[in-house]
Write a structure and sequence with these properties.
The protein is about 35% helix and about 20% strand. It has about 220 residues and is of the alpha/beta class. It has 2 domains: about 5-105, D-Maltodextrin-Binding Protein, domain 2, CATH 3.40.190.10; about 105-210, Periplasmic binding protein-like II (D-Maltodextrin-Binding Protein, domain 2), CATH 3.40.190. The strands form 3 sheets. Strands 7-6-8-5-9 form a 5-stranded mixed β-sheet, with helices on both faces. It is elongated and about 55 Å long. The model is unreliable at about 1-10, about 170-175, about 190-200 and about 205-210 (pLDDT under 50).
Length: about 220
Amino acid sequence: MKFKSVLAAVIGFVAACCFQQQAVAGQTNVAVAANFTEAAKEIATSFQSKTGHVAVLSFGATGQLYAQITQSAPFEILLSADQARPEKAVEEGLAAPEGRFTYAIGKIVLWSRDPALVKGEETLKTAVFAKLAYCNPASAPYGAAAIETLKALHLFEKLQPKLVQGENILRRSNSSIRAMPSLALSPCRRSFETALARVGSFPRPSIRPFDRTPCY
């Protein structure tokens, strides 16, 4: 993704929400998909510097955040990892139709602590690794994308004994990746960009790109 463009778009979006609510400096509560953590923190810092307003960020799996919104959690904005939840929010009267737009296009990558292990599809097909981690597909869109990827490569059944699941990218990064699995199917994150040797992206046959869409 072109980060500066994303930064400008999201800052403008959050600022518009803030200005609709109040003319004086205040705060806006923002629910953020876990895989957008690093970028959201940078955006929040820039947003406060430019506007004087504070974006209070809450991170988690998109599905979990949406469930909280349906239970009256005090979020003004949802930065979703997919389009489905924002669409559903509009349908259920929880968000304004004009508040939806695509702010980034995500992609799946194959990540490992061992740079030599990552060789794209070949790594998955040879299966010479101990464990492969991915997010819970019920709550994290990229978990569903990981399963879709493995099925498209006809590897889902073969790799079943090696698959381990985490609730979201934050929990999986802190526990599974660091402690146990050799590999992870993960959304490409800015934190990975400082260690590109460890990231091996690969084609996803018949799999659509994942649009990230916010709503308010």
